[in-house]
Design brief:
- The chain is of the alpha/beta class and 131 residues long.
- The chain has a single domain, classed as Transcription Regulator spoIIAA (2-Layer Sandwich).
- It has a 4-stranded mixed beta sheet with strand order 1-2-3-4, covered by helices on one side.
- Strand 3, helix 2 and strand 4 form a beta-alpha-beta unit.
- Helix 1 packs parallel to helix 2.
């Protein structure tokens, strides 16, 4: 965090690109923190309800994240595991890469969703694409 900067100083911005319904892209900007994480969680849940092969979370414009913001990423992964949707992160800032590595979330995200038909960790054919 920058010296003198207060968390949640920048509102959360979200945009969703559903041009490929099997691979929606949710772009996040600003501060993803306790007071701002609700809309992203709701957007993730809405996208997961459609059961796409992949959901891409684009963090190119992310300025700050706290533990609640990280919990939204973990929630997306956990729920994606249940419905066979892979969660991919795109354009992660260096600070987010470091946090994801330190907390072990990078390892979670690398696991393929469970194929509910077979019970295996194999991706269904429709979700083999990567971000």
């Amino acid at each position: 965090m920058l010296a003198g900067r207060k968390p949640e100083a920048t509102p959360l911005g979200l945009s969703v690109d559903r041009s490929d319904p099997d691979r929606p892209v949710i772009s996040v900007s600003g501060d993803l923190a306790f007071a701002t994480a609700g809309p992203l969680r709701a957007e993730v849940d809405q996208a997961l309800a459609e059961r796409p092969a992949v959901i891409v979370l684009d963090f190119a414009e992310l300025l700050f994240i706290d533990s609640t913001g990280l919990s939204v990423i973990v929630h997306a992964w956990r729920e994606g595991q249940q419905c066979g949707t892979a969660i991919r992160l795109r354009s992660t800032p260096r600070f987010l890469d470091a946090i994801l590595d330190m907390t072990g979330i990078t390892g979670l995200l690398a696991r393929p969703p469970v194929n509910t038909a077979t019970g295996s960790g194999t991706l269904p054919d429709r979700s083999a694409a990567t971000a």
